[in-house]
Design goal:
The chain has helices at about 1-35, 100-105, 125-135, 145-150, 185-195, 205-215, 230-235, 245-250, and strands at about 120-125, 165, 180, 185, 200. It has about 250 residues and is mainly alpha-helical. The longest helix has about 35 residues, at about 1-35. The N and C termini lie far apart (about 155 Å).
């Protein structure tokens, strides 16, 4: 009887342990199924090893002339003969079938002068403004285009053929100045001389203008060229205050 009792105790202990283990497993499964893991956003940093085009951005072109199975074999989608079937053939986008083209039908007016030499316009009122600011300082030596560029009246890159002085703002001009300029209007000449100033129109070709504006580019300054025949009349006319006029030449003596 004692041995039977001990065997019964062992069986009951084993059953109790098995039940406990099964209960623990069920509780762990229940907890794992009820508690969901936290979803986190995966951040991918752009670097050279994962740099690529977007999906569908690059499409492989269809290779023509690779047999009838490629759908573009034999004639390669160009059809039989004709102008558009030839290599390098085809009509221009603006071809109108042989009728007079649109550009020929519309009327034309005016022209572009390829030999024009546009001057940078500067007004006498602007000169007075820069004198009042202290950026232009009149002296016994005449002001040149270089002085105007250094003062910021105009940009060096804008002066391609010279500078022309105009008379806008002449009622504000009160400082007598000496100036050498490429061209000048009658009103500008009159305004400068009315306040006791002096103006001379001087010819600069492209080389002389570059030597004047950027003297650091030249080890030896080139001589100033004489005006071409078509401009000789302008610079020998005293009414234009040309530097080759006899009256201006006599003043320099």
């Amino acid at each position: 009887m004692l041995g039977l009792h001990r065997g019964t105790q062992k069986i009951s202990i084993r059953a109790t342990v098995a039940l406990t283990q099964s209960f623990n497993n069920l509780s762990i499964r229940h907890l794992s199924s009820s508690v969901q893991p936290e979803k986190r956003e995966v951040v991918t940093f752009l670097s050279l090893n994962n740099l690529s085009d977007n999906e569908g951005a690059v499409k492989t072109r269809r290779r023509v002339g690779r047999g009838i199975g490629s759908s573009k074999g034999k004639t390669c989608g160009r059809g039989h003969k004709g102008q558009k079937a030839r290599s390098g053939g085809g009509v221009k986008p603006f071809f109108e079938g042989g009728q007079t083209s649109f550009i020929k039908r519309v009327p034309k007016r005016g022209f572009k002068n390829n030999h024009a030499e546009p001057m940078v316009p500067i007004n006498v009122g602007t000169l007075q403004d820069y004198i009042d600011m202290g950026r232009l300082v009149p002296s016994d030596e005449p002001l040149t285009i270089k002085d105007l560029v250094d003062a910021g009246v105009t940009k060096c890159s804008s002066v391609k053929h010279g500078v022309k002085l105009l008379a806008k703002g002449k009622e504000r001009l009160r400082t007598p100045i000496k100036i050498e300029i490429s061209r000048a209007s009658e009103g500008a000449i009159e305004a400068i001389e009315n306040v006791g100033g002096e103006i001379t129109t001087v010819h600069y070709n492209r080389l002389a203008l570059r030597a004047l504006l950027k003297p650091e580019k030249f080890e030896i300054a080139p001589k100033r060229a004489r005006p071409p025949p078509k401009l000789m009349q302008y610079y020998t006319d005293y009414e234009k205050r040309g530097f080759l006029s006899p009256e201006v030449q006599l003043k320099k003596l």
